[in-house]
Specification:
heterodimer, A: mainly beta, six-stranded mixed sheet, B: 115 residues, seven-stranded mixed sheet, 56% strand, globular
Chain lengths: 113, 115
């Protein structure tokens, strides 16, 4: 069955550094991969979508890579700020044109001032 | 743009009663709406996919008679938890998809507590 793993449950980094979060998947080949931010007690907020034929996508301080050979996506936040502290979820499409996604368990990022 | 609201934001009900949760797309028409539940420190679990004017498609293991979904219009979907039990206590979140887009826009979630 499809499986998604986000590298660590929690990640602490110092303000100003680059945070790198990992999303690995097995047993299928998604055409789309998304990253979301979720704050406690709130719904996820869409950040970036990357297609299987795209190697990299950027949006302001965010960068996502998608390596279909390694079955891995990396999510980078450069010049991190305490306000970036949240849980970040990766999500992969379930295929067959259903527009459904399977979500990882998330990485809780804490940016220390 | 792409704002989704949910109502109520939290609800407490007694075991055996039914609870309705509304999900609205405020500034767009949603081609498809999705319902998820999330337990503490766990990921989102897709419960069902809802298209306007048609029956919802439920994921394996989700009881369709217990979790009734009605997608009455392109801007409103409702989830009714029938005969709620304490194990139904969870965080329920809806999302909506716009047109041909693949990204989903989530509501703020509804915290359901069944006593």
């Amino acid at each position: 069955s499809q499986k998604i793993e986000q590298n660590s449950e929690a990640l602490n980094i110092q303000e100003g550094k680059t945070a790198t979060l990992t999303c690995n998947y097995t047993n299928y080949s998604p055409a789309y991969l998304q990253w979301y931010r979720q704050d406690p007690g709130r719904g996820p907020v869409f950040l970036l979508l990357i297609r299987e034929n795209e190697k990299e996508k950027r949006k302001e301080r965010l960068k996502v890579t998608f390596d279909t050979t390694l079955k891995q996506s990396l999510f980078h936040i450069t010049a991190s700020q305490p306000a970036d502290s949240a849980t970040y979820l990766c999500a992969l499409d379930m295929g067959s044109g259903t527009y459904k996604y399977i979500f990882g368990t998330g990485t809780r990022l804490k940016v220390l001032a | 743009g792409a704002v989704v609201s949910q109502h109520p934001s939290w609800v407490i009900c007694k075991s055996g009663t039914s609870v309705k949760i509304e999900c609205r797309s405020l500034d767009f028409q949603a081609t498809t709406m999705f319902w998820y539940r999330q337990f503490p420190k766990q990921s989102l679990m897709l419960m069902a996919t809802s298209n306007e004017g048609s029956k919802a498609t439920y994921e394996q293991g989700v009881e369709k008679d217990k979790f009734l979904i009605n997608h009455a219009s392109l801007t409103l979907s409702t989830l009714t938890v029938t005969s709620a039990h304490p194990e139904d206590s969870s965080f329920y979140i809806c999302s909506a998809r716009v047109g041909g887009g693949y990204e989903q826009y989530f509501g703020p979630g509804t915290r359901l507590t069944v006593t």
